[in-house]
Amino acid sequence: MRxxxxxxxxxxxxxxxxxxxxxxxxxxxxxxxxxxxxxxxxLHGVGCTCYGDGWFPERLTKDIxxxxxxxxxxxxxxxxxxxxxxxxxxxxxxxxxxxRTRSKTRVVVAGSRGKKSIISMMVCALRKQKLAFDxxxxxxxxxxxxxxxxSYESRIALIEGDEHITPTSGKxxxxxxxxxxxxxxxxxxxxxETDHATPESYLSTYQSFSTSIEREGKLIYFGGDAAxxxxxxDVRDDITAIPYDRHPVVERDGQSFLHTRYGDYQVRIPDxxxxxxxxxxxxxxxxxxxxxxxxxxxxxxxxxxLSL
Length: 308
Fold this sequence. Notes:
By secondary structure, the chain is an alpha/beta fold. It has helices at 12-23, 37-46, 78-86, 93-100, 115-128, 199-211, 226-233, 274-287, 292-304, and strands at residues 3-7, 27-31, 66-69, 89-92, 105-110, 134-136, 148-149, 156-160, 182-185, 218-222, 240-244, 249-252, 255-260, 263-267. α1 (12-23) links the parallel β1 and β2. α5 (115-128) crosses α9 (292-304) and α8 packs antiparallel against α9. The chain is globular. The mean pLDDT is 92.
């Protein structure tokens, strides 16, 4: 049985990764600061080893195959130092997720806005077509029970991209680890709150992301963002760049309908970006084998179920 130790399990993504790995049959240990009793009880309940609140470097042993770091782990973390002393493989969460999804079609949704909405729509359409998928998300999506699912049987992996710097490297961005077959890029909006000191370094992150797309891959991008459109023009020749914009609608009797070649589908539009994100999700699902007509039917039902 493969042994994995997770550092900073109080991060939601890392916590759900621990549960997903345990369900997959891994021997999992975990540690973190500010662990409450409820979280400890849940970890212990599924068979994860956790010694309590805090760090326990003396518990790390050479038979651990991999140590996985949450995004908040500092470089001087005592467990990280111990793992280095023992020569254990150390990976960020994105590096680890990539290794666990190497044999799957990876769809990575990236950008400053709309990721959660696009993923929600894709989940709805894939479920309607009974297409199994794994996922790793930095934000909770309401239609999913948790933020990570890893399985042996599914051939698709949905991943929410994150432009933060990995703790294992002072320069490498998390987005560079996933190597998508299908990349969705929404828009780019730098702010001082990001890990990037300048707009130029922020843009460079996404340039690196675009070069990390697998050979013969697809880049589905928002054509209404100038920086994204320029980036799409500069991709390798083997990558197919597919633009998207706001999906057309018609209004009848006070109701909104998606206007399509297959007919009109009633929808509720909860925000100004809904129709833009819908088109991104549609194009990505098409690459995964979902016909447009089936997507529209699923998204009509999905949108009508939304509470405004």
